[in-house]
Amino acid sequence: MKLLQFALPPLPYYIASGHEDHPPGMVHVDRCNIGLFDLLAVEEGELLVTEGDRSYEVGPGQALILRPDAHHYGTAPTRMRTRCYWLHFKHDGYWTATDERLPLYRDPRGEWIGRDVFAGEELDNAHDAEWKMNAPLFSVQMPQYADLVEPARMFELLGQLTAMTSSGQVGGALWRQQILFQELLQQLSAGLDARSTSPSAACAAQAAAYLRQHYREDISARAMSESLNFHSVYIARCMQKEFGCSPKEYLLRYRIDQSKLLLLRTDYPVSRIAGDVGFNQAAYFASCFAKYEGLSPRSYRQRFSHA
């Protein structure tokens, strides 16, 4: 299955949509590198479309997302009456197409999303632009071609978006359009999760929740293994697959993220903050902080707390 992966934020955003009712014989438009994603969802009939070297037969209750950087065209005339929605959207951040599930917090180049990479571009001054108090980047995947898990809800959302576009409303309606569109993308992504949830993903999610809950404590692999009822080697393998890091690295990064909040929101000394987020030694905390953030905890506080 071909998957589209988006690094967020920024969020993909809605451009326009429409509903079409065609008699037999309709041929999809021939376009190349249009710069927009084109979502097609079929209520009745079929859409026969080719993108690149792959042809699709999109039937009732199915959806296809055509890429903005590819050539697509009608493979052949439709053989029956076809009712369908089309929707154009854009993503100004980093995205890629892949044949496999990728780690939640890494892009395909192996870099930790949210560290020194933003929207697929390396920043000259990542700390000033990204790590002041912004949310870390994460990734979302959705199938490029799939059966809709909740077709009734999907067509309801498409109908609302199209009606709002046709009415020419502005202001609050434009905001509402973007909210509806995000729900639509969530439907597509959740459908992928519903079909492909694996024991590995479930184990990794439980382990991550355990680490976040107990990050202030002295966590051992044995204690986590006994609590989750999984072998520690299996836990480590699952987290590496799903999150792109070991349990130890996940815990370390989470502790550092929590320490940044305390550095900016309190006047606690660095030694106290180190203990509050689970570090036994302030010197080790400072060393880890500098390794991942590029500056010491005190310098971080001085740079951002009054900016």
UniProtKB/TrEMBL annotation:
What keywords is this UniProt entry annotated with?
Answer: DNA-binding, Transcription, Transcription regulation
The source's domain of life comes to Bacteria
Report which residue ranges the record marks as coiled coil.
Answer: none
The GO terms describing molecular function are: DNA-binding transcription factor activity; sequence-specific DNA binding
Q: Does the keyword Transcription apply?
A: yes
Q: Which SUPFAM superfamilies match?
A: Homeodomain-like, Regulatory protein AraC
Domain named HTH araC/xylS-type is located at 205-303
Name of a matching Pfam family:
HTH_18
Q: Per its UniProt record, what PANTHER family does this chain match?
A: ARAC-FAMILY TRANSCRIPTIONAL REGULATOR, HTH-TYPE TRANSCRIPTIONAL REGULATOR EXSA
Q: What is the protein's name according to its record? A: Two-component response regulator yesN
